[in-house]
Amino acid sequence: MLAAKVRSGVVETTHEGAVAIVDAGGSVIAWYGEIDRPFLIRSAAKPFQAMVANRSEAKLTPLQLALAASSHDGDPVHIAIVSEMLAEVGLDEDDLGCPPAWPLSASARDRVVAGGATAPRPIWNNCSGKHAAFLRACVSSGWDAAGYLDPDHVLQREVAGVLAEWSGVETPVPGVDGCGFPVAKITAMGLARLFARLAIERSMAPVFEAMHRYPSLVSGTGNGDALIATALDAAAKRGAEGCLGVALAGGIGIGVKAWDGLGPVADVAAVAALDQLGMLTPHMSLALAETGRPPLLGGGGRQGALEPRLVLAR
């Protein structure tokens, strides 16, 4: 198993999953579980979607590129940058194809409600940065912006090609993600290979740099992927339903999937894998202590933790 919730010395739940770690050439270094079992990549695809948009004349600054790769919390800084991304090319929130949503974080939701909000908005959707980047690419390249969510749109075809080529996993017919984007099938092995490419491909270098430099823009304050990218020379990106990719400078890629869909389980497994591979200094281990063992609270105090149980095969 990847992890277990242990409260007052009693195992309450166990959590299975898969972890793959590959080198810069895509060869397996270590693994756990069913690394060839398929799942949907969800928002872990965003670094590669951001690269395609930027390569297609979206002309994103580093801050905007971080938002293009983000599943943001909906904090004021996130919304301000997405608004800027749209306004610079003569667009606004009404052009976004993502559905209305409340901000992802509780504090951001409380802030907009306190400000008088009574309904969700598309720009508050955690995927609005990705949508804004694709719209910018369409405007700059003269492509149909209204159809950018269609799997046959030139941008979506390019994304599908990149994901298939770099991961080695073919997706003949894509699914539909929560924000309306086409979403590809992946495996833990394929996810690890993608994130190894994030660390070494020249076309991905601006994305890696933006994600590592501005992890709180890519995610939010205190989220597992942001903390991993802060503690190490790395970029990390979570996806819905418990998937996580980590790209380490130099070309190590890590792909994690928790089969029960719990994001904290994927975070715990990633930290455990980094530790078992000897990639964490004492300072890094301290910075990731709560990410690697999230506390379970009760009666106003700590009563246990979500503990790693992962043992990698080499």
Tell me about this structure:
It is built from 13 helices and 13 strands. It has one domain: Beta-lactamase (3-Layer(aba) Sandwich), CATH 3.40.710. Helix 1 crosses helix 8 (205-213) and helix 3 (76-87) packs parallel to helix 5. The model has no long low-confidence stretch (mean pLDDT 97). The chain has helices spanning 46-58, 62-68, 76-87, 106-114, 128-141, 154-167, 188-200, 205-213, 215-218, 224-231, 263-276, 282-287, 289-292, and strands at residues 3-7, 10-15, 17-22, 28-32, 39-40, 175-176, 182-183, 185-186, 234-239, 243-248, 252-258, 295-298, 301-308. With 314 residues, it is of the alpha+beta class. It has a 5-stranded antiparallel beta sheet with strand order 4-3-11-10-9. Strands 2-1-13-12 form a 4-stranded antiparallel beta sheet. It has a two-stranded antiparallel ribbon with strand order 5-8.
